[in-house]
Design a protein that fits this description.
Elements: E1 2-3, H1 16-20, E2 25-29, E3 34-36, E4 44-50, E5 53-59, E6 62-69, E7 74-75, E8 90-94, E9 98-104, H2 105-114, H3 116-138, H4 143-158, E10 160-161, E11 167-168, H5 175-182, H6 186-193, E12 200-202, E13 205-208, H7 210-222
Antiparallel strand pairs: 1-2, 2-9, 3-8, 4-7, 4-9, 5-6, 5-8, 10-11, 11-13, 12-13
């Protein structure tokens, strides 16, 4: 963990005021590294500067759906509840190499009292996250739909365009990791991936046409 030089990262405009006035710290995680466990103390907000992070919601029955967050997203929203003893409701792990910007709870509390624009930005962000999470929860009872939705989020957060016009996921995202994130068998994974005609493995990376996948996901939602 080190003091952050804002000149070295890209900061979404709505978070510029927060980071410029709160003595943020810079934290790096390697692929697969645990960022925090469910039930751990929430010491502050963390903005993802780069990379992709998996968040698994804890439920009374065990692990819930896996959400994927990327650059510009916030972790540790429980700090906004106002309870000084807020604990995380999710387990958070780095999917790829990740850079986070950490702002301590006391700085957040002060800024919420002083900056109305920040309050509005956080409310808008929290509402957008709620809608996104609800969309993911609608898929939770259907493993195929959950996997396709997950591929969409991975493409949006850490996918890279390739020469064919398709999107390639990072090499860290393997078949084994996908089965773990969705809690399905290897056979279910293969059967679902066969529904995406453009999907292939190129140079060790899952590669597919994003528009085609989007149409398939929308078709699943309708059915």
């Amino acid at each position: 963990m080190s003091q952050l030089d804002l000149a070295n990262i890209t900061v979404p405009e709505r978070w510029e005021g927060l980071l410029a006035n709160c003595c943020p710290l810079h934290i790096r995680y390697q692929p697969g590294e645990m960022i925090y466990q469910s039930g751990s103390y929430v010491a502050g907000l963390q903005m993802i500067a780069s990379g992709a992070v998996s968040e698994r919601i804890a439920t009374r029955w065990g692990g819930g759906p896996t959400q994927v967050s990327g650059a510009g997203d916030l972790l540790g929203l429980e700090v906004l509840i106002g309870n000084p003893e807020s604990y995380s409701r999710t387990r958070c792990r780095a999917i790829t190499a990740v850079e986070l910007v950490f702002v301590a709870r006391e700085h957040i509390d002060h800024m919420l009292k002083e900056d109305g624009n920040l309050v509005r930005a956080l409310l808008e962000y929290a509402a957008a996250r709620l809608i996104r999470d609800q969309d993911a929860l609608r898929c939770a009872g259907n493993a195929e739909r959950t996997l396709l939705h997950l591929l969409m989020r991975l493409a949006q957060t850490c996918g890279q365009p390739v020469a064919s016009g398709d999107i390639a996921l990072p090499k860290e995202i393997s078949s084994r990791q996908l089965t773990s994130m969705v809690s399905i068998s290897g056979r279910q994974l293969r059967n679902t991936l066969e529904r995406v005609p453009s999907l292939r493995i190129s140079e060790g990376c899952f590669t597919f046409n994003l528009d085609q996948l989007s149409n398939i996901v929308e078709g699943c939602a309708v059915s």
